[in-house]
Design a protein that fits this description.
The protein is of the alpha/beta class. Helices cover 24% and strands 27% of the residues. The longest helix has 17 residues.
């Protein structure tokens, strides 16, 4: 049984203040015997309206050092969104996974930017170019995506084919028409089509970010859902039950990969669209 803590928060533009808030969430998660505390995209810092993104830090900077201290103190894995210094004029939008001893297990740099409508995320961040390599923990194998990446089913499928039992989405999913519907539909779809558990930890900020952090079982059952408040929600995920779910819905086991070459062609949609 994996016990996941969703740490929903409203991060301001001060990384040190946000770390103090995370320390409170970590204490709550530890009190619930969580194996993993999941924090949202931009948990390190998010700018005030109309201001540039706060300064990025390296993986050896004070924010990650603070996270490492919390992970070691509570003997708990922590997954957190940071602004990672790149040496360039723009940072990476990164999540870092720490183990129970405060060591960095792996990082993931967002590789699909939210360039849509009037917003261009690529104006603020460098594009990551590596797929996330599934991470082994003492409670199961994890796959990780950042926000907009949930809209690309290939990313989830690749990680599940590599053995991921639990998909984690660190997000700053915005408010707006149909956004809540899309958030929950995308998460439940990734769970159902892959036969795995999924947890989405979303940023919450009035009129900006939706909140509604949640978790779904492999059959699409809603296991937990937060509203628009900051706090922690403890979610038990019985990863050992995945084979039972897949007996009932064996689609992931009935793939015919030899038929799917078309979907891997670059720009195939644009070349074949009407």
């Amino acid at each position: 049984m994996a016990t996941i803590a969703l740490g929903q928060m409203n991060a301001g533009d001060n990384a040190a203040a946000n770390l103090e808030k995370i320390a409170q969430l970590a204490a709550q998660a530890a009190a619930g015997n969580a194996d993993l505390l999941v924090l949202p995209e931009y948990a390190m810092a998010y700018p005030q309206k109309g201001q540039p993104f706060p300064s990025a830090q390296t993986l050896n900077g004070p924010f990650v050092i603070g996270l490492r201290t919390l992970a070691k103190r509570h003997r708990m894995y922590i997954l957190c969104g940071i602004l990672e210094y790149s040496g360039d004029s723009k940072p990476y939008n990164t999540v870092v996974l720490l183990d129970r001893y405060g060591e960095i297990v792996c990082i993931h740099r967002k590789n699909h930017m939210y360039d849509t409508m009037k917003y261009r995320e690529s104006e603020h961040f460098l594009l990551g170019n590596d797929l996330f390599q599934t991470a082994d923990t003492d409670f199961g194998r994890l796959g990780v995506m950042i926000c907009y990446e949930i809209r690309f089913p290939e990313l989830a499928r690749i990680q599940v084919l590599d053995g991921a039992q639990l998909l984690i989405v660190c997000a700053a999913f915005v408010t707006g028409p149909s956004k809540a519907l899309q958030w929950h539909t995308l998460l439940s779809a990734r769970a159902i089509e892959n036969g795995v558990f999924i947890c989405g930890c979303n940023h919450v900020k009035p009129k900006v970010f939706l909140g509604e952090s949640c978790a779904y079982a492999p059959d699409g059952e809603l296991l937990a859902k937060m509203a628009t408040q900051e706090g922690v929600r403890i979610v038990p995920c019985n990863l050992d039950a995945i084979p039972i779910y897949r007996e009932k819905n064996p689609a992931i086991l009935q793939r015919r990969a030899e038929l799917y070459g078309f979907v891997h062609k670059s720009n195939s949609y644009e070349e074949n669209s009407f």
